[in-house]
C-alpha cells in the first residue's frame, strides 16, 4: 500500500510538472475547487479547457494511457467541438519498441508451449510498436506466415494506475458546471471500460472473427475483393494475438496499375473506393457491428489487389432502432429537413437540461441551409452529421456513445476516401443502396417472417383493444378513474391563490371581531361585558396589524 502511495505521489508530481510546463493552470483550478469551502460558487465552477493543440501535447507527454484517452475522446464529436476532434484525431502512439527479451518472457508465460516449439522463426525487430502492444512477423512450424501481436509488459498495471487517477480527477470535478455538463464521472467509467477491453485480446479476436464472417456474407459488394485476417485461436490468449500475415501497404500508399480495368487507374481507384464505402455501410446499417477506426493504416491494399481491414480493437455497435433512425437522419440531411432531424434527435439523444425544441429546429435549419447551394458531389457528409451532433449538444442533449463512434468512423472513412479518390462523394455512393436500405427497414431480411410477425402483433392488438376500451369505459361509469395531470408552473399559481384566500379569511375574522366588540360595547351594562369588548378590540387590532405587516413584506401592497 505504501509503495502504491509512493507511485501515485510520484505520478501526481509528474502530471503537475507536465501541466506547468505547458503553461496550463488547470491543475491550479482543480486544487482551488477541491479546497474551496463557501465563497464564490460561480468562480469555483469555472473550469477552462486548454486550446486543442496544447491539450494534444499534454496528452502525449502524459504517456500512452493518456494518448489512448485522447484517441477515444476523438471518437466523441457529440461531446467536444470539431476543432478538438481534429486535433485529437492526430494523436499517434509513437513509443519506442520493447526489448525482445521482455516480449519473449510474455510469450513464454502466455503460450502453452515454448515459442521454439511453435515457431520456426520470429523476427525480433517489430514491424509496429504501439502504446498497448507491438507486432512481430513469424513463421509457424507448418510454414504459415503470421503476425504476433504481444501486449507490452506492465501495461496492465500502468493502465490501472492512470485510470484510477483519471477517475479521481473526474470525481473532483463532478460538482462543477464543467463536470456536470460533460458528466465526467460517467465518461471516466466509459473510458475505463473501453481501455480495459483493449487489454483483452480474446475480445479483439472475437470481434475480428465476427467482422470477417459479416463481410463474407456481404450483398452490396464483391466479397472476394475485401477481407479480414484470420485469427489462430489455438495460439491466441488474453495478451497474445496470432493472426494471418498479409503482404501489402496502407491504401494511400498503393501503387495502382489498373490491370483489372483495362489499364484505367482512375477506374480502379473508383472501384476500390466503392468497395470500401459499401463494405462499411453494410457494417453500419445491416450488421450493426462496425469498425470504429478506419484510418489509413487500418485499410491495407494487398499485393493481390484485395483490400484488408485491420485492427479490430475499437469496434462499435448499432441496434436496429438506431440503424433505422440513422437512415432517416441521412435522408433528412440530404433533403434539408430540419424538423425531421430534430424529431430523430429526440428519439436518440437524452435531455440533460432544459430543452427548447424551437431553438433546436432553428439551429438545424440554419445549419442545413449552409448546404442548400452545395451539390452532393461537393458535400461533406461526415462534417454535416458531426455538426448535427454539435448542435444537439449545445441544446443540452447527450448522444449515446455509439453514435459518437459511428460519427468518428464515418469521418475517418470519408477522409480516407477523399484522399484516395478526391472525386468521391459519400452521398453518391449511398444513393444506389437507399432502396435496399428502406426495404430492409420495412421488411427485414425475411419479408415473409416480417409479414407474419406484423400479423401476429395486429392480432394481439385487435384482441387487447376491446378489453382495454371496455375497462376504460367501466372506470368512467364507476367514477373510479383518476387523471393525474401535471402542468408546469401551476404550483406557483396555486400558492398565490392559497395566500389570497388566507388573507381574505383573516380579514373576515378581523372584521367580525371589530363588529362583535362594537355590539358588546354598545350594550355593556356590567364591568365584565366592558372587559370582553376591550379583549375583542385588542384581538382585532393585533390580527389586523399582523395581516398588514404580512402584506407589506410580500411586496404586493398595491
TrEMBL record:
CDD domains: ABC1_ADCK3-like (cd05121)
SUPFAM superfamilies: Protein kinase-like (PK-like)
Pfam (any one): ABC1
Annotated InterPro entries: ABC1_dom, Kinase-like_dom_sf, UbiB_kinase
Domain spans labelled ABC1 atypical kinase-like: 91-344
Family: Belongs to the protein kinase superfamily. ADCK protein kinase family.
UniProt protein name: ABC transporter
